[in-house]
């Protein structure tokens, strides 16, 4: 009887240990961020100063990234709170984001007709390095993964870099 009790106790301990390991707080699916901080989903670095935005903040802001289409302008924009500006990729007015930005698309800087920081003033931006790639497009939302996606403006004296994952609301 003592032997059966010992075996049952060992099995119970193994089940408890397995349960705790299976319920860990990390998830492989949450690893889509890639930003600089421990909980950063998306970062914007301006002239070497890092600005981190965690998942909760991005969800609360909800308009951090948007596709907007008007008769005079069509663009993909990223709100840049620290500058009170928008980073914009302009595209031809007939561009349909549902079909154009397919999963795997990575030519944002090549296909844009203009890239700029838009706010009180408009500054033309120039691509430097890094990448951006569409991870998901369901026709309502576009998810893009940025990897040290860097641009300069103001004759190359200023720099902005995007890193991590950002959701764009497709408003058209």
Task: Give the end-to-end Cα distance, rounded to a whole number of Å.
Answer: 72 Å
Mean pLDDT: 81
Radius of gyration over C-alpha positions, nearest whole angstrom: 22 Å
Described by its quaternary structure, the protein is: single chain
Task: Please indicate the percent range of residues in DSSP E strands (runs of 2 or more).
Answer: over 45%
> Which percent range fits the helix content?
10-25%
**Largest sheet geometry:** 10 strands, mixed
Low-confidence stretches: 14-38
List the helices and strands and how they pair.
Elements: H1 2-22, E1 40-46, E2 49-54, H2 55-61, E3 65-69, E4 74-80, E5 85-91, H3 97-100, H4 108-111, E6 114-118, E7 122-124, E8 126-137, E9 141-153, E10 158-171
Descriptive labels:
single chain; alpha+beta; 46% strand; 10-stranded mixed sheet
Describe the structure.
With 172 residues, the protein is α+β, with helices and mostly antiparallel strands. The protein has helices spanning 2-22, 55-61, 97-100, 108-111; strands at 40-46, 49-54, 65-69, 74-80, 85-91, 114-118, 122-124, 126-137, 141-153, 158-171. Strands 1, 2, 3, 4, 5, 6, 7, 8, 9 and 10 form a ten-stranded mixed beta sheet that branches. The termini are far apart.
